[in-house]
Amino acid sequence: MPNVKNQKEEVPFFHYLDIYKGLDPREIAGRCNLPFDSESSRFSLRLMGTDYRIPFPEFAMLDAEGADVRSLAEKILVLHYLCKGRYIEYQGKQRSYQEIPWGEVYYQNFRGRCIQRFARTFGRDAPAFRRLMEGLPGLRAEALRQGDAGYRFEFVTGLFMSLILWAGDEEFSPSAQFLFDDNFEFAFTAEDIAVVGEVAIARLKQPPPPAAGGTAWPLVASK
Hints:
alpha+beta
């Protein structure tokens, strides 16, 4: 293993990278319902509205310009899905984090890392949240009749989640809810889904630059 400077992220990254290299790419494609081009030896995967090419057996997340994703947390999440996750068809229900297996155990952690952080970031500016969600067609966002602003959108290819925001005012603090389609629990563990929430917030706060000819997202200040 290379010299590890950040064990919290680099150790699991190289662990799952070793697993990934030993798998059959056709098995991954079938299990995760992802296209695999045998000629170029690459998977196609969409994350938060951006299309990526993922080489095999080497691993990278390359956008349309050939740039690799910089976030190691995002790479670990995608690697874990390719190594361990499974795609099944959506059955028409959404679940809160507590309803996901082991979600109740990790809920307080998820509440602080994701729900409260999301509410603090967007709770005073619901119109900015709407512009972000509607600013990129690739996100496949669907407006919901819940809260002051709510959207169901595709997090990763075929896996949808919802963000619901209740705006704050002088009397009440903003609040929020995360909901996950009922196939999420087969793709990710409860611990992974906490990272899903963090990735979704981070990408909304600072989306990656669009490919040539793409639609730029407006940015909001980090909080």
